[in-house]
Design goal:
The structure holds two protein chains of two kinds. Chain A contains no helices and nine strands. A five-stranded mixed sheet of chain A has the order 1-9-8-3-4, with no helix packed on it. A four-stranded antiparallel sheet of chain A has the order 2-7-6-5, with no helix packed on it. In chain A, a hairpin with a 6-residue loop joins β3 and β4. Chain B is mainly beta. The radius of gyration of chain B is 13 Å and the shape is globular. Chain B starts with a strand and ends with a strand. The chains are: A mainly beta, B mainly beta. At the A-B interface, β3 and β4 of A face β4, β5, β9 and β10 of B.
Chain lengths: 112, 115
């Protein structure tokens, strides 16, 4: 799986939009970009996945530029309950292992 | 929404004892996984399982570890002789397909404490 780089931590306030950027310079043609969220003492939870351009669901948006060497997870109007670790993972397509390789993720702290 | 369930939520075991962690994956999923997370560290892949056999395992998954799907619903991880360094959260996950672009659904984990 392609290596990813994301900020270790971010702070925000309730009601703000939060953008977390992930770099993946060695992304392969068939790779997808997937984001997971993990609350303390819980397992990771799938948030969103994309291949190119923009994907939006009820939780977040994912922006992927044309070169696909980075991606940005956008959380609109965060609340205290969005405080969590957010992981960017890149892989799939050409691989059938199913193995997920997690980095350290970005710890988002939302303040009142 | 269907969930992956894990039992027990917390297991305390003496070093050297055997422990079995249990998971019930989502019913129509075909691929099953175990991960672990030592306190304050990354989530680490242990093993993937499909069609009643191991698809891939990490170097962490040594001879002390084994997995089994004893019936149509349960998926278990056994640690034969636990060590202090096995203390961690263990997460089970499942997915419909086995490609690593397929979303995996995780349980809330079993906290294993080795004394």
């Amino acid at each position: 799986l392609a290596k990813t780089t994301q900020p270790i931590s971010m702070d925000s306030y309730e009601g703000q939009e939060v953008n977390i950027t992930c770099s993946h310079n060695n992304i392969a043609t068939n790779d997808y970009i997937t984001w997971y969220q993990q609350f303390p003492s819980q397992g990771p939870r799938f948030i969103i996945q994309g291949y190119k351009t923009k994907v939006t669901n009820e939780v977040a948006s994912l922006f992927i530029p044309a070169d696909r060497k980075s991606s940005t997870l956008s959380l609109p109007r965060v609340s205290l309950s969005d405080t969590a670790v957010y992981y960017c993972l890149v892989g799939g397509g050409s691989s059938n292992t199913g193995k997920l390789i997690f980095g350290q993720g970005t710890t988002l702290q939302v303040k009142p | 929404e269907p969930e992956v369930t894990q039992t027990p939520s917390h297991q305390v075991t003496q070093m050297g004892q055997e422990v079995i962690l249990r998971c019930v994956p989502i019913s129509n999923h075909l691929y099953f996984y175990w991960y672990r997370q030592i306190l304050g560290q990354k989530v680490e892949f242990l093993v993937s399982f499909y069609n009643n056999e191991i698809s891939e395992k990490s170097e962490i998954f040594d001879d002390q570890f084994s997995v089994e799907r004893p019936d149509g619903s349960n998926f278990t991880l056994k640690i034969r002789s636990t060590k202090l360094e096995d203390s961690a959260m263990y997460f089970c996950a499942s997915s419909k397909l086995g490609q690593d672009n397929q979303p995996q659904h995780f349980g809330d984990g079993t906290r294993l404490s080795i004394l």
